[in-house]
Specification:
The complex is a heterotrimer of chains A (about 425), B (about 300) and C (about 600).
Chain A lengths: L2 H14 L6 H22 L5 H4 L2 H8 L5 E9 L6 H21 L5 E9 L4 H13 L3 E6 L3 H13 L3 E4 L6 H4 L14 E3 L4 H15 L4 E6 L3 H16 L3 E7 L8 H7 L6 E5 L2 H13 L6 E3 L6 H5 L7 E5 L7 H12 L10 H19 L9 H9 L2 E4 L2 E4 L10 E8 L2 E9 L3
Helix pairs in contact in A: 5-15, 6-7, 9-10, 15-16
Chain B lengths: L1 H31 L6 H19 L8 H28 L8 H21 L7 E2 L8 E4 L2 E4 H23 L1 H11 L1 H6 L4 H27 L1 E2 L3 H16 L4 H21 L7 H15 L14
Antiparallel strand pairs in B: 1-4, 2-3
Helix pairs in contact in B: 1-5, 1-8, 1-9, 1-10, 2-3, 2-4, 2-8, 2-9, 3-8, 5-6, 5-8, 6-8, 9-10, 9-11, 10-11
Chain C lengths: L12 H17 L29 H18 L5 H27 L7 E2 L2 E2 L2 H18 L16 H28 L11 H22 L1 H11 L1 H14 L8 H26 L8 H13 L14 H20 L7 H20 L19 E2 L2 E2 L4 E3 L2 E3 L3 H22 L2 H11 L1 H6 L4 H27 L9 H14 L4 H17 L7 H15 L8 H8 L8 H18 L10
Antiparallel strand pairs in C: 1-2, 3-4, 5-6
Helix pairs in contact in C: 1-2, 1-4, 2-3, 2-6, 3-4, 3-6, 5-8, 7-8, 9-13, 9-16, 9-17, 9-18, 10-11, 10-12, 10-16, 11-16, 13-16, 14-16, 17-18
Chain lengths: ~425, ~300, ~600
């Protein structure tokens, strides 16, 4: 290439910096634009979802007086991540309660709205969600949380704002009775209630069954270190040893671990005839399967944290056991209305282990708000009154009789043992723990 | 004693998975001096690819015949891993070939996050861990006092075989020579007629293929995959690559087995137990980087800013 | 942008921009949705009405009206930077239209929602889109001129100059205050009670972005920054006053104060990271560990019931101890860097970050609460007032959380002062030297090892301080707040905002922590967008939004004045050739 060509090329390039759009390019793009515009016009003639858009909500609210605005019921549970199956069940059940309340105009002058917040089973995210709800105006109460350790972060924040909190699933005793719950129970937060029962009943109930009925005498315990699992395992241990079983070893895995080969290798030498798992199903299932693969084909027993179909699909095997709070929902007559309404509600997820409890919790709050508001204007100063009313609430709900004792615990102390049979959970025994 | 042997076996299984991933890391770093943070995600994508084949491509009745589904899943996982890796190279890394070092690093982080999220959002139901079928003989082999499952053994064997094959390919074939030349001096290699872009793509492809295999076999072993398995295993793999010496294939594999053993034995015998097994690996990483950055088999690093 | 100017001949520029403005006016009046959406009526009366009261428009319609009127007026009025202004207005309106169109169409179930369905027409969003396109095309038709320069010395005597400068600065920062307040509150608090917060906020961003770009195009932004450079002390005072005045504006509710305080914490951390990464060029991928160390130290010294240490120290002391402990760890982490560089340094810091994360997950030394974290951390109590109660100042009752906000403003101010002083000091210059070329710096006699450790130490201390405030505000110290992703986010904030500059770090932190808050509907896609954004930024604007001049040159292949290097090089070569041609007898030097 000679100088002249190079220079010419360079000059062209230099000039080209201020606009490379040549005639060709313009022509092409103009054509393309015309085609697109034509296409849009054609498309515009079709599809809207106007039918859904004419809000079904609008139809209902027209028959209720909602002139005073909207009140918000919050929900804080894991909506994403491993425990989302449980969390979504809670959210949907609370949603059902809210929808029904709007239909029946339970709260005069106001529309109720559900505000679900995802806590990702993480105390920090839960605390942020609680802070958000606490500073959002018109929040009447929060159904939360699923995990006991998340609740520990949420409780002080909601309590400071005076917002009532009812948990459908926290089972750890310290949440209502303080650190020394056996000998010196002291209620730490008077805004906190729960509709499910507690580990000091669930653990021993499991121990009674495992040791006496199933005859297991050498039990290994594995937990994931969280408040729930540790508390449950502690209560289980006390009762199991009292009934004459031997806890051969107790191991801890990380919250997110899924490879249990290390811990299984540590357990094997003790040759246990059962393993008690203090934790939830995302780890419980794989643990059960890996135990079997490693040659330890013994039943794994857990608490309400593994009572979900996903436990089985993730590795739970036949003869594994779980306890869960309350009687089986399908068997309770008072639950039938809830189950039917839930099925008709068009939710894509099942109500799972805690749906019925969440439904009752939501109704407790809603009914109390209805009483407190009673045609007046809602103001945040009514929260104290609301807490009092919730404490005095008593009704028949989807889980049986719903009422709270002086610590905020549920007066309903029924528990059920489930066993995996033929690839599904079947209830084996229902009762109350008598001590 | 049994526990010791068992934990050694466990460590070797872990090392096998990590070795396959580490090979990819070491090759890419050798060629373009990029720590491909997203390589762990390629492994994860391979695993999900295999699962996708199992769920939607294989008909229900032959699905559980492992001699059909395992190869199918491997092929599926590998293909998807390769596609993702090539796209990654083309769209994210190639434009930044001549940028200051910070840019490709951050881009790799971005790609890694984006891939994790993409799988979480668009693979059905992937917000929680997915059950992965065991597509192999469900047998347990007892070698003396230790129990090892057939699929674990498969993993070890496959990883060693693949590593050897890769080493042969790199050292004996023409393309392998081209790769080595490009990693030594890209411009001279170009003068010698090597097309660096092609070589780089090939590097990514090979790394991704190995990672894809690792993903499917990992899933088959642990029977559980989630969208975050890439990050953890990726860090281990990178540690292994560094330990063995960046740029050395042999080093990557040996380093991986060492890392696996550190995790299991450290978890068993060092204070803190299994809670701190990851910590020991990171400690090793720091020590290696500080005191012997060339690793076990690498050359002494020339000073790089 | 330069490519667009070939689309429309220059003669048509004026008609195009005028038409664009008219289209905006029209769009402001037209309905935008053909029916009530699923969650109820779209705000600003966007449905089913032809709006005939122009001065009662609110929200995005009002913004479009303003833009349209401005565009029409500016078309016919000579204005420095006219093309830039018009282009900015065009893009702003275009974004408003686009957001509205996409959201309404997707909520409404199809394009019928924004065009015509069941006898109703609602072309507002399409008209706005068209108007934006036309306006941008018209604006770029004549080519974009350089940024206008405004004189910085106004008035004859120095006193006059100073006074006018002060007045201008006060007005400018008051405007910034208003803008920040409006941005925070735009869209309202998302949630069950108001489901349209996200798109309203995005449309507002279109407006704010267009407005800012227009002001920038007129040359106002550069003028103000020059003025503030010249009168630095005063600007800082005014800025501080404005920050303290935020609670008295519309954004003064509990919710917004809490959001603002969170942003403040992350901004403080980002500035600290800026010292390590931006000034000293040490890539730190485990920085959030220092935030965490400060947090856990403060948690254990706060008297929380769940903390095993159980000490209860007054907050300033606890914060100081937290900062010092974090600083010590910073020095420890920094020490291996004496031997490690570049990528490997990044990995070493990543490893340290992960060690911290794992150890705190396992409740090391019983100090971190492990998976259950340390909940129930009492609020900061200074001068007898707990910080989470409402507070009365100058007779106005300020909501809960305002005190945290003031605290964080003070801390950010301190950190900024530290940063600015350091940057201009010997140690700051030493850091910059190390960043640019470590070997040369050492050859110049700088003790690179000490300098690097010092960078880590100072950065870690600042993070520790921020961590102490963070943990009191949140009430919980949890290991999960300090995972690798947070380090990446902080790094992204520093890079996105622009490395080496304070406004950059603050801007980056604000964007990265306010956007997820405002766009909660899109929360599911947040991380995906974040990852993709990292890729795009590194590809197209690696120097960030408010870059250091040197960084911009380094990254963007431009000279310090902003011209592409290739252009300048070719210019030089051409001139050389020219000179050659005119004096061919001079022997070649053999240089290209």
């Amino acid at each position: 290439m000679d100088e002249g060509t190079v220079r010419h090329a360079m000059r062209q390039r230099l000039n080209g910096y201020s606009g490379e759009g040549t005639f060709n390019v313009r022509n092409q793009t103009v054509k393309a634009a015309a085609v697109v515009a034509a296409g849009l016009l054609v498309l515009s003639a079709c599809s809207t979802n106007k039918d859904e858009g004419a809000p079904a909500g609008g139809g209902e609210t027209q028959s209720c007086d909602t002139s005073k605005g909207t009140l918000v019921l919050g929900v804080i549970t894991p909506l994403s991540g491993e425990l989302s199956a449980l969390g979504l069940g809670i959210r949907n059940s609370a949603d059902l309660a809210v929808k029904q309340a709007n239909e029946k105009c339970t709260v005069e002058g106001y529309k109720l709205a559900l505000q679900p917040e995802d806590d990702q089973r993480n105390p920090q995210v839960g605390a942020q969600a609680a802070t958000k709800l606490a500073s959002t105006p018109n929040v009447i109460g929060v159904v939360s949380t699923l995990n006991s350790n998340v609740s520990q972060s949420v409780q002080p924040i909601l309590d400071q704002a005076g917002i009532v909190q009812i948990s459908p699933a926290n089972t750890n005793d310290t949440l209502t009775k303080g650190e020394d719950f056996l000998n010196n129970p002291k209620r730490p937060y008077k805004t906190y209630f729960r509709t499910c029962t507690v580990d000091s009943l669930q653990g021993p109930f499991a121990a009674n069954y495992l040791v006496e009925k199933a005859g297991k005498k050498k039990i290994a315990i594995v937990t994931n270190g969280l408040t729930y699992g540790e508390g449950l395992a502690n209560e289980f241990t006390k009762q199991a040893e009292a009934k004459g079983a031997q806890i051969v070893t107790r191991q801890k895995v990380g919250e997110k671990d899924t490879d249990f080969s290390g811990v299984i290798a540590s357990i094997k030498p003790f040759a246990p005839d059962a393993v008690y798992w203090g934790g939830e199903y995302p780890q419980g299932g794989p643990l059960s399967k890996q135990l079997a693969s490693a040659g330890l084909n013994v039943p794994v027993m857990g608490g309400d944290g593994i009572y979900d179909d996903k436990f089985i699909s993730l590795g739970g095997k036949d003869s594994d056991l779980a306890t869960s709070v309350g009687a089986p929902t399908e068997e309770l007559p008072s639950a039938k209305a809830f189950v039917d309404a839930y099925d008709k509600g068009g939710f894509s997820d099942a109500f799972a282990a805690y749906g019925a409890f969440a439904y009752d919790a939501a109704n407790a709050i809603i009914a109390s708000v209805g009483k407190v508001v009673n045609g007046k204007e809602w103001s945040d100063s009514m929260r104290e009154d609301l807490v009092k009313n919730v404490g005095e609430y008593s009704a028949d709900g989807a889980t049986g009789k719903v009422a709270f004792d002086e610590f905020g615990d549920s007066t309903n102390k029924v528990l059920t043992i489930y066993q995996v049979t033929g690839g599904k959970w079947e209830s084996v025994e229902t009762g109350e723990f008598e001590g | 004693m049994t526990t010791l042997l068992q934990q050694i076996a466990n460590g070797l299984v872990l090392g096998a998975t990590i070795g396959l991933i580490a090979l990819g890391y070491t090759m890419v770093y050798g060629i373009i001096q990029l720590i491909n943070f997203a390589h762990g995600e390629v492994f994860m994508v391979g695993a999900f690819g295999g699962l996708a084949v199992y769920r939607w491509v294989l008909p229900e009745d032959i699905r559980d015949d492992w001699y059909i589904s395992l190869p199918a899943m491997l092929v599926g996982g590998v293909i998807i891993a390769i596609v993702v890796a090539v796209l990654m190279e083309r769209l994210a890394y190639r434009p930044l070939r001549n940028a200051p070092r910070l840019a490709p690093l951050i881009t790799a982080l971005g790609v890694s996050v984006a891939l994790q999220e993409a799988v979480r959002l668009w693979f059905p139901d992937a917000t929680s861990a997915q059950a992965f079928p065991r597509v192999f003989v469900d047998a347990q082999i007892d070698i003396g006092p230790i129990a090892i499952s057939a699929s674990q053994l498969l993993l070890i064997v496959v990883s060693i075989v693949l590593a050897v094959l890769l080493q042969l390919y790199i050292s004996k074939s023409r393309m392998g020579r081209a790769m080595r030349a490009t990693s030594m001096d890209r411009d001279t290699a170009r003068l010698m007629g090597v097309n660096p872009d092609r070589v780089i793509v090939l590097t990514f492809v090979l790394g991704a293929a190995l990672a894809g295999v690792a993903g499917v076999l990992y899933g088959s072993n642990i029977n559980l995959i989630a969208n975050d398995i890439g990050f953890q295993n990726g860090i281990f793999a990178f540690t292994a690559a560094v330990l063995g010496g960046i740029g050395s294939l042999r080093g990557a594999v040996i380093g991986a087995f060492i890392i696996g053993l550190i995790k299991t034995l450290g978890g068993q015998y060092l204070p803190g137990g299994t809670d701190y097994d990851y910590v020991w690996i990171f400690v090793v990483l720091i020590l290696v980087l500080v005191f012997r950055p060339q690793g076990l088999f690498g050359e002494v690093e020339r000073m790089r800013a | 942008m330069s490519k667009l100017s070939a689309w429309v001949p220059a003669a048509l520029a004026r008609p195009f921009t005028a038409v664009g403005g008219v289209l905006f006016l029209l769009a402001a009046m037209l309905p935008w949705a053909t029916f009530l959406l699923n969650d109820g009526a779209y705000p600003e009366k966007a449905t089913l009405q032809f709006f005939d009261a122009p001065f009662e428009l609110t929200g995005f319609r009002w913004h479009l009206l303003l833009f349209g009127a401005a565009a029409i007026v500016i078309t016919f009025v000579p204005l420095p930077g006219k093309a830039r202004v018009l282009r900015a207005l065009g893009w702003g309106g275009l974004i408003i239209g686009l957001v509205g169109a996409i959201f309404i169409a997707s909520e409404g179930g199809g394009l019928g929602a924004i065009t015509a369905a069941d006898g109703n027409t609602a072309l507002g969003s399409i008209v706005a889109l068209l108007g934006g396109i036309v306006l941008v095309l018209g604006a770029t038709a004549t080519g974009i001129e350089d940024l206008p320069h405004w004189p910085t010395r106004l008035g004859s005597s120095p006193i006059q100059q100073r006074l006018t400068a002060y007045v201008v600065l006060i007005v400018a920062f008051a405007g910034v205050l208003w803008l920040v307040s409006a941005t925070l509150t735009a869209g309202g608090i998302g949630g069950a009670a108001f489901p349209y917060a996200g798109p309203i906020f995005l449309a507002y961003l279109g407006f704010a972005g267009g407005l800012l770009a227009a002001l920038h195009g007129v040359g106002l932004a550069r003028w103000i920054s020059q003025l503030s450079e010249e009168h630095r002390a005063f600007s800082i005072v005014v800025l501080l006053a404005c920050a303290c005045a935020l609670p008295f504006t519309e954004a003064g509710s509990q919710y917004w104060m809490q959001v603002a305080a969170t942003i403040g914490v992350y901004a403080a951390t980002a500035i600290g990271l800026n010292i390590v990464v931006g000034l000293a060029g040490l890539l730190d991928l485990g920085y959030v560990a220092f935030l965490g160390i400060g947090a856990f130290v403060a948690a254990n010294l706060s008297g929380a019931a769940a903390s095993s240490l159980g000490w209860d120290l007054p907050f300033p002391l606890a914060a100081l101890i937290a900062a010092v402990v974090a600083g010590i760890f910073g020095a420890i982490v920094g020490s291996p860097t004496l031997r490690v560089r570049g990528d490997y340094l990044a990995i070493v810091t990543l490893a340290f970050g992960e060690i911290f994360y794992r150890s705190s997950q396992n409740n090391i030394g019983d100090l971190t609460g492990g998976s259950n974290s340390i909940p129930g951390i009492p609020p900061v109590t200074m001068f007898g007032t707990p910080f989470n109660e409402p507070f009365t100042l100058f007779g106005t009752e300020l909501p809960t959380g305002v005190l945290y906000y003031f605290l964080i403003v003070v801390i950010v101010a301190i950190i900024m002062a530290v940063f600015a002083n350091l940057k201009n000091s010997r140690i700051g210059r030493a850091w910059i030297a190390v960043r640019e070329d470590e070997d040369a710096a050492r050859a110049m006699g700088i003790r690179t090892g000490q300098v690097k450790i010092l960078a880590f130490l100072v950065g870690a201390m600042l993070a520790g301080l921020a961590g102490a405030v963070f943990v009191h505000k949140l009430g919980t110290a949890s290991y999960s707040s300090f995972q690798f992703l947070e380090s990446v986010t902080l790094l992204a904030a520093v890079i996105l905002g622009g490395m080496g500059t304070i406004p950059g770090a603050v801007l980056g932190a604000s964007l990265l922590f306010v956007l997820p808050e405002k766009l909660r509907e899109f929360d599911d896609y947040r991380l995906l967008v974040f990852g993709l954004a990292l890729v795009f930024i590194m590809r197209f604007r690696p120097q960030g939004l408010v870059p250091d001049r040197i960084r911009r040159a380094e990254f963007a292949g431009e000279t310090a004045e902003g011209k592409p290097i290739e252009e300048v090089e070719e210019q030089v070569v051409l001139e050389h050739e020219q000179a050659e041609h005119e004096a061919p007898s001079a022997p070649k030097e053999g240089k290209a």
